[in-house]
Amino acid sequence: MWLLWARCQDGESSGPDQDREKRYAELFDQLDLNKDGRIDIRELRTGLAGRGLSRGSLERIVEAGDTNQDGVLDFDEFTQYLRAHEKQLKLMFHSLDRNNDGKIDVAEIQHCLRSIGVNVSLEDATRILLSMDKDGTMTIDWNEWRDYFLFNPITNMEEVARYWKRSMMLDIGEQLTVPDEFTEEEKKSGYVWRQLMAGALAGSVSRTGTAPLDRIKVFRQVHGSTDFKGNVLNSFQYMLKEGGLQSMWRGNGINVLKIAPETAIKFTAYEQIKSVMRGGSESRPLRVHERFVAGSLAGATAQTAVYPMEVLKTRLTLRKTGQYSGIADCAKQILQREGVAAFYKGYVPNLLSIVPYAGIDLAVYETLKFSWLNRNIGLADPGVMVLVGCGAVSSTCGQLASYPLALIRTRMQAQASVKGAPKLSMLALLRNIVTKEGIAGLYRGISPNLLKVVPAVSVSYVAYEYTRIMLGVDIEGRRGGKGKG
Predict the structure, then answer these.
(1) How far apart are the first and last CA of the chain?
(2) In this predicted structure, what is the pLDDT of residue 117?
(3) Dist. CA 473–CA 192, nearest whole Å
(4) CA-to-CA distance for 464 and 460, rounded, in angstroms?
(5) Residues of the chain with pLDDT under 50
(6) DSSP 179
(7) E strand or H helix that includes residue 83
(8) Are 124 and 168 a contacting pair, CB within 8 Å?
(9) What b/e readout covers 167-201, taking b as 16+ CB neighbours within 10 angstroms?
(10) 73 pairs with which residues across the strands?
């Protein structure tokens, strides 16, 4: 469909209105999949697949054009919307074209983003430009601008800037080791906390959905081959027999409960660390490796603060029926029997695992994402499915690198709950595992962990999309579901 639209662009400004109406008719016909003379959300989503538009954006298109409020667009409403939207796009194009040469260059993109407090490098601005530059001139002309934003319901330059900002943000799926960048206006408006809350809610849904696999992973990590012989299915059957179906969600409550404080601490620490790294130049954009270091340090800070909850989560996950009456009882028993130090067992391997996981996850994610963008010139946003794929692969690679440390951490956290288990240090435990179980022992329990990667990332993205809309934070950075006119 987009090839047809592109072939019809040359000479449009001097062509008669009837030619434009003909093109609108051809577009309408191709989007009207069931040929009933109307276009609904489902048909828009199918016809515009691959353009990185959220469901909220598509709903705004229908809302803006649906004059009779019947929830769909007929031909007249469709063409009326396109005419009005093209006029808005023309005004925005001229506003961005500061030197009035009929083209948008890299400098003008940088200036546009600076208007909302985002300072981007020449490399990032060039990547944005290349996503729209179809003829290889290193500029964006009116036709390219219109083609790109024709079905994106932006209404002003602030929204364009926010859309560009979102397209270049580093995002590594559910881990969010490198937090998003926010402007001062977004911080003051409360947008930041709505965005973070959306992520926390999505994480809660994702963790709850994959909790049974997580419990099997922890169970197999702690009960090595010398204690429990059997495969994943045997572990599942054992837990079902011991505590019933509801036992598969043991430990999930505190796992969800720790998301909010961890997210808040991580973001606050990240902002402070960025400020220190910038020194006296507050407006200087951080480079990728600087953001990675800042994100890793912020993650370590957050982990330090919530680590006792990690220990409680492991103990509650492994508990047998009747062992603890709840989170408070579990904490009380640990404190009475083992002292305060027990709440930081496994802290060192946990801290050490942050860097290899985050580094490999980020590197693989960015490599896959940029590879896709390079193969699909003309699209700034890969769309949900591509990001889910990138997130799943990068998360898997990160886990493979950091899993031995995660296993040692979990065993140290659980030592007192396993009858007769010696209280070993990190290095002693590592030697013990390798001696008794071989190198394979360091990866015990990884199969259920890998099984949960795709559903966890997928559920997280889907939940994130809907919770953002529910909280008034749409993917293009607009608030309240509607843009400012």
Answers:
(1) 30
(2) 67
(3) 9
(4) 6
(5) 1-16, 169-179, 475-485
(6) P
(7) helix 75-96
(8) yes
(9) bbebbbbbbbbbbbbbbeebeeeebbbbbbbbbbb
(10) 39
Tokens of 162: 């926010």
Model confidence, pTM: 0.63
- What's the one-letter identity of residue 418? V
- pLDDT on residue 305: 92
Q: State residue 485's pLDDT score.
A: 30
22 touches 12 (CB < 8 A): no
Chain centroid offset of residue 434 CA? 36
Which residues lie below 8 Å from residue 187, measured CB to CB, with a gap of 6+?
A: none
Q: Is 318 helix (H, G, I), strand (E, B) or coil?
A: helix
Q: Is 396 helix (H, G, I), strand (E, B) or coil?
A: helix
How large is the angle between the packed helices 288-318 and 327-338, nearest 10 degrees?
A: 90
Place of tokens 């969800």: 256
16: tokens are 């008669």
CA distance 409 to 176: 21
Structure-token pair, residue 148: 């790109």
| Neighbour tally for 130: CB within 10 Å | 18
